[in-house]
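User: Sequence for Flavodoxin-like protein below. Tokens please.
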Amino acid sequence: MENKMNKTLIIAAHPNLAQSAVNRRWLDALRQHPERFTVHELYAAYPHGNIDIAAEQRLVDAHQTLVLQFPVYWFNCPPLLKQWLDDVLTYGWAYGAQGKALAGKKTAIAVSLGAPAADYTRQGAVGYTVAEALRSFELSLRYCQADYRPMFAFHTIDSNAGYSAAALQAIEQSAADYIAWLNQLTEAA
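Assistant: Structure tokens for Flavodoxin-like protein:
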């Protein structure tokens, strides 16, 4: 039986992965390393939104590192990932006096954004950094005593506008950068 404790669990939440250039490419890159990464696609596993809480908790328990991967929607995650957080991170398991499932577990988020990095500055269209806009993930995971690490963020153009050759090359590079970031995440003390 393989030792999953040394593997990283990627909870991938994209409601339309077939139409995704970035998240789909990242998952393709992760699947080239099945000995290191377990890819768990929420929308494929739960097309009707009926999350098996016990199964999800067992999956998290079986991994040393947890990464939530998603496209940013209105400065948040897609709805099924929010439901996953609400349903799976239960009192007595993830937090509370007896809730220690995430205590000390390396956790992070990996996000794609359909806006240029300049938008996520004080002077930009958003007026906040990505970390500030997504602070609730850090707060939630730290509240569960997880070892929250800095995120991986990739900015691209609005996918509705289509992708140029340069944008496609940047997406390809982002997959390599994502793997490198995961390597650092799992190696960091």
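Strands lie at 8-12, 37-41, 65-71, 106-113, 147-148, 152-155.
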